[in-house]
Amino acid sequence: MADVPRSSSVSKLQWNGLKIAAILIAAILALPILVVLINVVIADGEVWGHLYQTVLAEYISNSLLLMLGVGIGVLVIGIPCAWLTSMCDFPGRSFLSWALLLPMAMPAYIIAYTYTGVLDFAGPVQTFIRELTGWRYGEYWFFEIRSLGGAIVMLTLVLYPYVYLMSRAAFLEQSENTLEVSRTLGYSGRRMFFSLALPLARPAIVTGLTLALMETLADYGTVQYFSVNTFTTGILRTFYGFGDVSAASQLAGVLLMFVAMLILLERYSRHRIRYHSSGLKKASNRRMVLKGGMGFNSMLFLSIAHSRWLFYTGECFGILGDV
């Protein structure tokens, strides 16, 4: 009987050790945020006043538009890809289900360099158009890749796997019984997706979207290369240009507010929402077979999404080979 209090005291010491270690790790990780908040409180307002009167509105508007565009883009690409690879069966599905994750391995600024070299005025695409039509500069319209729209496209092509991965996991976990009931009630595939599967997967989709938007706010290389003024470019410009750590910290503090809003949005989307499907048959055990035109169109859509990664990977190797 004497061993009981001894074992409980040992476990209590171990538990206290784990708590202390967790607190130390959390303190180390929170240190940069604390430094930013302290500098926001004690900062001199002279440089901040100059930023407020000149560029702060541009930083906010560009960051919001960038988040809006990337958010729409990753949803438009990520959700259909997740649904097709998890709930449907067509030629090439097994390969494309993991190949669609490959863009996460490529930094956004590398894609920006590649597509700029291909789509810029001196690139092969516009050169071919001018040689084919005889048009000169200013006589035709072409998408300006080094712009806010171009940055949205580049970041979308890299960050959609966040939504794809989370959405696919949610679709795979959905119960086959639930979907079967919807079929017996006369739901078409489209209605089943929008009225049942998509709402059930909403918490996972919002989580993936939140991660993608956080990456968008933190990106520097792409927006700097495309000359788009956002908070990240403004922070470095203030730090190195003005040499003012306090003003840079104040900009970082505003950026942290955006991040906090995203976290609150993600938590609010899961407010009082709980879905449980343990012990039930997974819907992925009975995939919808797409034949004919539907199967071909699905394979074509996913192949286009994946072929972009092969394209800019090959282009990067070509650039490295020329060095």
Describe the model:
- The protein is mainly α.
- It folds into two domains: 42 residues; 278 residues, MetI-like fold (Orthogonal Bundle).
- The protein is 77% helix and 1% strand.
- The protein contains 14 helices and two strands.
- Helix 7 packs antiparallel against helix 10.
- It starts with a helix and ends with a helix.
- The C terminus is likely disordered.
Number of helices: 14
The CATH superfamily of the largest domain is identified as: MetI-like
Low-confidence stretches: 310-323
Number of beta strands: 2
Brief account:
This protein has 323 residues and is mostly helical.
Keywords:
323 residues; mainly alpha; MetI-like fold; 1% strand
Chain-wise SSE layout:
Elements: H1 3-42, H2 45-54, H3 56-87, E1 88-89, H4 93-99, H5 108-119, H6 124-133, H7 148-173, H8 176-184, H9 189-200, H10 202-218, H11 221-225, H12 231-242, H13 245-269, E2 288-289, H14 292-322
